[in-house]
């Protein structure tokens, strides 16, 4: 892991994260989970806001672009971090922009 300007942090190579998989990474002191959905990369906090489960253990709904927490099934939008199953509309886990440069995945933290 290394840092470049604008807090773009290299977290892995694309080959380390094939389609349909997720990977927990450390970036700028945060634990983040990066998902590869059909070559598009998403990054959110690796933390369910309900009871703290790691979202890297969740299951991904590729159609909806969501991860479903493995403990009690709260769902999160992978693009925004919004909790889509919570009755309140303003419950978000952290989400981060991703960028691919060559064969490396960067997260803006
Ligand atoms: S800890 Fe994630 S839904 Fe309960």
Q: What is the CATH class designation?
A: Mainly Beta
> Can you tell me the number of structural domains?
1
Q: Provide the succession of SSEs.
A: EEEEEEEEEEE
Bound ligands, named by name, code or SMILES? FE2/S2 (inorganic) cluster
Strand order of the largest sheet: 1-2-11-10
Structural class based on helices, strands and sheet pairing: mainly beta
**Mean of all residue-level pLDDT scores:** 94
Rounded to an integer, what's the Rg over CA atoms? 13 Å
Strand content: 35-45%
The N- to C-terminal Cα distance equals 13 Å
The level of helicity is: under 10%
The CATH topology is: Rieske Iron-sulfur Protein
CATH superfamily: Rieske [2Fe-2S] iron-sulphur domain
List its salient traits.
single chain; 109 residues; mainly beta; Rieske Iron-sulfur Protein; four-stranded antiparallel β-sheet; 11 strands; globular; binds FE2/S2 (inorganic) cluster
Polypeptide structure, described:
With 109 residues, the chain is an all-beta fold. The chain has one domain: Rieske Iron-sulfur Protein, CATH 2.102.10.10. The protein contains no helices and eleven strands. The protein has strands at residues 2-3, 8-13, 22-27, 30-37, 40-45, 59-61, 66-68, 75-77, 95-96, 98-101, 104-108. The strands form three sheets. It has a four-stranded antiparallel beta sheet, with no helix packed on it. A four-stranded antiparallel beta sheet has the order 3-4-5-9, with no helix packed on it. A three-stranded antiparallel beta sheet has the order 6-7-8, with no helix packed on it. It starts with a strand and ends with a strand. The model has no long low-confidence stretch (mean pLDDT 94). Bound molecules: FE2/S2 (inorganic) cluster (FES). FE2/S2 (inorganic) cluster binds at residues 48, 50-51, 53, 69, 71-74.
């Amino acid at each position: 892991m290394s840092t470049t300007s604008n807090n773009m942090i290299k977290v892995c190579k694309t080959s380390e994260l094939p389609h349909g998989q997720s990977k927990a990474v450390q970036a700028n002191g945060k634990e983040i989970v990066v998902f590869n959905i059909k070559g598009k990369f998403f990054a959110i906090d690796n933390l369910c806001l309900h009871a703290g489960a790691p979202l890297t253990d969740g299951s991904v709904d590729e159609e909806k672009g969501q991860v479903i927490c493995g403990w009690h099934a709260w769902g999160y939008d992978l693009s925004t971090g919004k909790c889509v199953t919570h009755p309140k509309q303003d419950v978000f886990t952290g989400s981060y922009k991703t960028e691919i440069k060559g064969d490396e995945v960067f997260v803006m933290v």
